[in-house]
Design a protein that fits this description.
With 161 residues, chain A is an all-alpha fold. Chain A has eight helices and no strands. Chain B is built from nine helices and six strands. The chains are: A mainly alpha (161), B alpha+beta (241). Chains A and B meet through helix 1, helix 2, helix 4, helix 5 and helix 6 of A and helix 1 and helix 4 of B.
Chain lengths: 161, 241
């Protein structure tokens, strides 16, 4: 059984990158990553015996990000009513932040597939493992996601130019 | 779609660089909240140790930092009598105690495992924490509050929950590309004729043969059921139609 500390240190940056893409907010991403590692620590006796503990970690992260979005949805709606400005992610360029915002509008499974494939740089098989679905389903989610992103990203580029 | 691919790769690379600039802080550690039953048991155990003079021995035991040869004198000890810890009792107290299901996705099994743990401990707060705000327990939504109410009315909700988790599971689509894992497996079939014989047989843990016969005549499974989605959210636990 490996130590939790070495697991934490080896995986932190990788899952933080995914969390940033999923939340478009570095501070929120850090909180999310902390939550996920706390959960991993609780269950370390068991998780450390998995073939790929990092797959479990990524799965928890993408699922927690979904839960967080559900919760934030109502909070943001409430904030909008009182005129709170949209928080800007300071650590990302406007282009990248805009792309993640568009990815954030995709259906849940498509969003997860994009982040796992591009940010975590997982293979189709690894992505399927984390998402607990077939490789065919991953390809389908990715294809649909890219197609859905085509129009908003093109329109956004035109606006900029 | 080529430009989309390229822009995703560029954005992902920048995001990874941003993450690389962040150093991991201290290892996040938080004590896990234990089911209350275990806390009560631990409290009673400590009380018994204290009453019978064992606790001072443990408290005064030499630490690793203490120099050799400075251990306190050995006191006479009395064996503490065996004492039954005062755990809350409800319909789940006598089991069944479902085993781990390695065929389930980790997130689903993790939630199932937590629910079993809290149900065995009669810990309604723990169950409510897992349920969150989305659990459906009746036609009006219901939430986790119904669990204690049902148990108080003698409906044996927690015992039923354990019995369900002791059965085989089925899988249904959530209509949005995800899956919902349901217990009993019989609930995953649209008509009674499609339910495999094994899945029908295990219903006898909850229902009499007359009740099962009634369901067969009505054309589908109508009884207690529960479901967890592939994100690990506990979605429903309802008494049936």
């Amino acid at each position: 059984m490996g130590s939790f500390e070495s697991f934490y240190r080896s995986q932190y940056r990788s899952v933080l990158g995914m969390a940033i893409a999923l939340t478009s907010d570095v501070s929120a991403a850090e909180d999310l990553v902390q939550e996920v590692f706390i959960t991993a620590h609780w269950r370390w006796d068991r998780i450390s015996r998995y073939d790929k503990p990092e797959s479990w970690l990524r799965r928890v992260l993408v699922n927690r990000a979904t839960s967080r979005r559900r919760k934030l949805g109502s909070e943001l709606r409430a904030l909008t009513r009182v005129g709170q400005p949209d928080p800007a992610p300071p650590d990302l360029s406007p282009e990248t932040a805009g792309i993640w915002r568009e990815v954030g509008r995709l259906p849940r499974r498509q969003r997860q597939a994009i982040v796992l494939r591009y940010v975590a740089e997982l293979s189709i098989e690894e992505t399927a493992d984390v998402m607990a679905c077939s490789t065919g389903a991953v390809k389908s989610h990715l294809h649909r996601a890219r197609r859905s992103l085509e129009e908003p990203l093109a329109a956004w580029t035109q606006e900029k130019s | 779609m080529r430009h989309v691919e390229e822009r995703l790769r560029t954005a992902a690379a920048e995001t990874r660089r941003t993450a690389e600039r962040h150093r991991p802080g201290r290892v996040p550690v938080r004590e896990r909240q234990r089911p209350k039953g275990l806390l009560v048991a631990a409290g009673v155990f400590v009380l018994v140790l204290g009453l019978f003079g064992v606790l001072p021995l443990l408290v005064d035991a030499p630490s690793e930092d203490q120099p050799l040869g400075s251990a306190p004198p050995v006191a006479e000890t009395t064996s503490p009598p065996t004492t039954q810890a005062a755990q809350p009792v409800c319909s789940s107290s006598e089991g069944p105690f479902p085993e781990a299901d390695t065929t389930l996705p980790n997130m689903v099994e993790s939630t199932r495992e937590s629910l079993i743990e809290y149900a065995v401990a009669c810990d309604f707060d723990g169950l409510a924490a897992v349920a969150g705000e989305t659990l459906i327990t009746d036609f009006a939504g219901g939430g986790a509050a119904n669990l204690a109410a049902w148990e108080g009315e003698g409906a044996q909700a927690l015992g039923t929950l354990l019995t369900l988790f002791d059965m085989s599971h089925g899988v249904i689509d959530d209509g949005q590309g995800g899956q919902i894992f349901v217990w009993p497996a019989a609930h995953a079939y649209r008509s009674w004729d499609e339910i495999p014989a094994d899945a029908v047989a295990e219903l006898s843990a909850l229902y009499t043969s007359d009740e099962i016969q009634l369901m067969e005549e009505s054309g589908g499974y109508l009884g207690w059921r529960t479901g967890i989605d592939d994100d690990g959210h506990w979605l429903f636990f309802v008494a049936g139609d």
